[in-house]
Specification:
By secondary structure, this protein is an alpha/beta fold. It has 11 helices and 5 strands.
C-alpha cells in the first residue's frame, strides 16, 4: 500500500468527523478509502490531537411499541355511522329531535331531545342535545352518513355555531349517498331504495304527523317511534357502508 499524505483543510475536518462517527469496521473502510492502513489513520488522529466534533442529534421519528401502547389517544381510530332526525330540514326553522352514533359492530349511542330538561318548557332550545352529539362525534376518526355531506353535517354545524360550540376537529367523512351516486345506476339513491335493492334491511316508515306530535306536543310515544326509526337507519347504513367500501377511492375531510 503506497504512502499517502494526510488530508488537509476541509477534507481533514470531514475525515475527523467520519472517523469518530464510524465503528471499527467503518474506520477500516475509511482507511482503505484513503489508501492507508488503519494504524496510519490512528497515528494521524493521535498526532493531530483532533477531538470529536459535536454532532447535532436529530429527533427520532421512530415510536416503539411500548411507547405507542402507553399513549392516550384523543380519538378512537374507528368509524361510526351517524344520522339525525329533526323537526324540519333547515337548521334555522327546526330543532334536533334525535340522533344516533353507531360505532362499528356495537350498539347505537342514542340522543333524544326529551331526555334534557329544556324539553319540558323550552323545546326550541336544542343546545344540550347539540352539545352532547358534538362531544361524542368528535371522539371518532371517521364519520359515515347517507346524504350527510348535504344534510346531517351542515345541519349539525349550523346548530353548533348557533350555540357557540367549538367546531368539530379535523375528521374524515364518508357519504354513502355520494358513493352510490358515482357507482350505482339505480332509480333512487335514497337509503330506503338502496336497502331494498341490496337486501340489507327494511327501512321503517314514520308518518309525518309523528314528527309534529314529537316536536310540538312533546309526545313520548311519537319520540319512541322516531328513535326506533333512527336506530334502524344507522344499522342499515352500517351494512351499506360495508358493501360500498370497495368503491371508495379516498376519504375526504369532513
Amino acid at each position: 500500500m503506497t504512502t499517502k499524505k494526510k488530508p488537509g483543510g476541509g477534507e481533514w475536518d470531514a475525515f475527523v468527523q467520519s472517523w469518530y462517527e464510524a465503528d471499527h469496521e467503518g474506520k477500516v473502510r475509511l482507511a482503505y478509502d484513503h489508501d492507508v492502513s488503519y494504524e496510519t489513520c490512528r497515528h494521524w488522529m493521535s498526532d493531530s490531537g483532533s477531538t470529536r466534533k459535536q454532532v447535532k442529534a436529530e429527533p427520532s421519528m421512530r415510536v416503539t411499541v411500548p411507547e405507542l401502547l402507553s399513549m392516550r389517544p384523543s380519538v378512537n381510530l374507528d368509524f361510526v355511522c351517524f344520522d339525525i332526525e329533526t323537526s324540519n330540514l333547515q337548521a334555522d326553522f327546526s330543532v334536533l329531535l334525535t340522533a344516533c352514533i353507531k360505532p362499528y359492530g356495537r350498539d347505537s349511542i342514542v340522543f333524544r331531545a326529551d331526555n334534557y330538561p329544556e324539553w319540558t318548557n323550552d323545546r326550541a332550545n336544542d343546545y344540550q342535545i347539540t352539545k352532547a352529539i358534538a362531544e361524542e362525534l368528535r371522539r371518532h376518526a371517521i364519520v359515515i352518513g347517507h346524504y350527510s355531506s348535504k344534510f346531517d353535517i351542515p345541519f349539525l354545524r349550523a346548530k353548533m355555531t348557533k350555540h357557540s360550540l367549538e367546531p368539530l376537529p379535523q375528521m374524515f367523512g364518508i357519504d354513502s349517498w355520494r358513493i352510490a351516486k358515482n357507482n350505482f345506476q339505480v332509480q333512487s339513491r335514497r337509503l330506503k331504495n338502496l336497502a331494498e335493492f341490496f337486501d340489507i334491511g327494511e327501512k321503517e316508515t314514520v308518518e309525518g304527523p309523528l314528527w309534529m306530535d314529537a316536536a310540538y306536543n312533546g309526545d313520548k310515544e311519537a319520540m319512541d317511534k322516531i328513535v326506533q326509526h333512527n336506530i334502524k337507519d344507522v344499522e342499515i347504513l352500517e351494512r351499506l357502508a360495508c358493501i360500498s367500501f370497495p368503491y371508495l377511492r379516498s376519504i375526504p375531510r369532513l
